[in-house]
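Re: Re: ligand-bound prediction request (bumping)

Still looking for help on this. To restate: I need the protein modeled with ribulose-5-phosphate bound, output as structure tokens. Inputs repeated here so nobody has to scroll up.
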Amino acid sequence: MSQDPERAKEQAGRHAAGYVSDDMRVGLGTGSTVRYTILELGERAKAGLDIVCTATSQQTHDLASSLGLRVVPPDQLGGLDIAIDGADEVDRDFNLTKGGGGAHTREKIVAEMAPRFIVVVDRSKMVDHLGPFGTPLEVLDFAPGLVADKVRSLGAAHVDTREARSDNGNLIMDAHFGVIEDPVWLGQQLKRITGLVEHGIFPGNLVERVVVADPNGVEVLTRFGPD
Ligand code: 5RP
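Reply:
Sorry for the wait, this slipped through. Here it is.
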């Protein structure tokens, strides 16, 4: 039986809130799937769950605050116990494409603060290879053409600039590499481009588990197989 994709997002998002318990410092991602995690945490906070959060976007900050969750800047926490976020693509090694919402720089900072990084997706995000979605890039608005040239020299067929900017006020571009055979290598090369603030490839070794939902329910994957 087919299922509303929104229902799968809700199942994955709400399931992941189960990894959060009292006294945790929690990183909150951005997007329509982790939104359900935040809603669930808001409901649990009203029932007494005691946590402090940091947010990866203004949108998430506003949502979490409106639900009564305590949200503070990352520097105020120094570290996190857990971070939960969505993704645009997840490959078999748990490498991720992120940045569909243009929030990947803050999302990467927050994911790197947490020893436990949980990814929440509906099944459509699971891919053999990263690439078809495009690779989001946050770029300083000083010499974006030069940055795009360097990105093309790494194999991007084209690089498009979005109209919307990031919460940091920078440009967001999408680079189209086709199928990315070695995302970790590509991520390292992109990182070396001056003026490219951050790219949306997250290496799989950041990820503890992926919560995937589809019409059959929720499956939790670790890099070593089903949980
Ligand atoms: C935002 C992101 C999101 O996590 C990603 O785009 C997935 O969003 P959604 O759950 O709405 O599909 O990286 O920058």
